[in-house]
Amino acid sequence: MPNRMKIFSGNANREMAEEICKYLGEPLSKAEVKKFSDGEISVEIGENVRGTDVFVVQPTCPPVNDHLMELIIMIDALRRASARRITAVIPYYGYARQDRKVRPRVPITSKAVAEMLMAVGTRRVLCMDLHAGQIQGFFNIPVDHLYAAPVILKYIRESFNDVIMVSPDAGGVERTRAFAKRLNAELAIIDKRRERANECEALHVIGDVSGKTAVLLDDMVDTAGTLCGAAAKLMDRGAKEVHACCSHPVLSGPAITRLEQSCIKSLVVTNSIPLREDARNCDKIKVLSVSELLGEAISRIHSEDSVSYLFV
Question: I want to staple 98 with a disulfide (CB 3.0 to 4.6 A). Which of 69, 80, 109, 126 is the partner?
Answer without folding.
Answer: 109
